[in-house]
Write a sequence for this structure.
């Protein structure tokens, strides 16, 4: 038996379902009962018999291969330390930036630089990789949202992010850590950031792609 609706916002301790369901994320079983352990959006697949709850907020948990956008906080001789919106800092070694092993990191980056990279390893520290096509991002503007909302910003098969790029004519890089970089004309950047803010606020609702498309169409006409 299901006690909530699909895509409902639930809170810790709330009874989600009773019966034989697989719990994937954000919930736990107590006998036949399944309870939420987080504040989040519940997703229920009755055919496959699984339940997951995506937290509305929370720090990013790094996974190998994730693209992330970070800001350099500190430089050493061969390493840079980045804020990646996680409980852990990102570590970028010079060997993962350039083929020139004799290069010094402070000749490549400065404190405050924005870097697009991917998570290379998470054993011990969060090691990053920033050789092409990754690297320093020049200009543009950043927006930070919950990392749990990033799938909605991207959309199915990249549909949502393609719509934003099309109507705003901006370059948009999306980090799985919840940091998004936008670069274009001022009005285009403003529009892209506003669209992302709407997605962040309304990610739990259905029909969001259509609403964002209509919003952007009305603004550019």
């Amino acid at each position: 038996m299901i006690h909530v609706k699909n895509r409902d916002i639930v809170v810790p301790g709330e009874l989600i379902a009773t019966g034989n369901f697989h719990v994937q994320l954000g919930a736990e079983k107590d006998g036949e009962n399944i309870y939420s352990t987080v504040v989040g959006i519940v997703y229920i697949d009755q055919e496959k018999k699984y339940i997951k709850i995506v937290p509305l907020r929370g720090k990013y948990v790094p996974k190998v291969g994730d693209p992330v956008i970070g800001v350099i906080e500190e430089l050493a001789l061969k390493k840079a330390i980045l804020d990646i919106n996680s409980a852990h800092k990102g570590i970028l070694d010079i060997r993962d930036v350039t083929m020139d092993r004799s290069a010094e990191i402070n000749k490549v980056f400065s404190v405050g630089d924005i870097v697009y990279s991917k998570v290379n390893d998470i054993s011990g520290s969060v090691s990053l990789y920033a050789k092409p096509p990754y690297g320093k991002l020049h200009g543009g503007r950043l927006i930070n949202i919950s990392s749990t909302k990033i799938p909605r910003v991207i959309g199915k098969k990249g549909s949502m992010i393609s719509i934003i790029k099309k109507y705003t004519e901006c370059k948009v890089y999306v980090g799985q850590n919840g940091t998004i970089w936008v670069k274009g004309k001022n009005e285009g950047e403003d529009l892209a950031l506003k669209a992302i803010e709407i997605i962040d606020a309304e990610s739990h609702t259905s029909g969001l792609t259509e609403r964002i498309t209509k919003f952007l169409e009305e603004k550019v006409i």
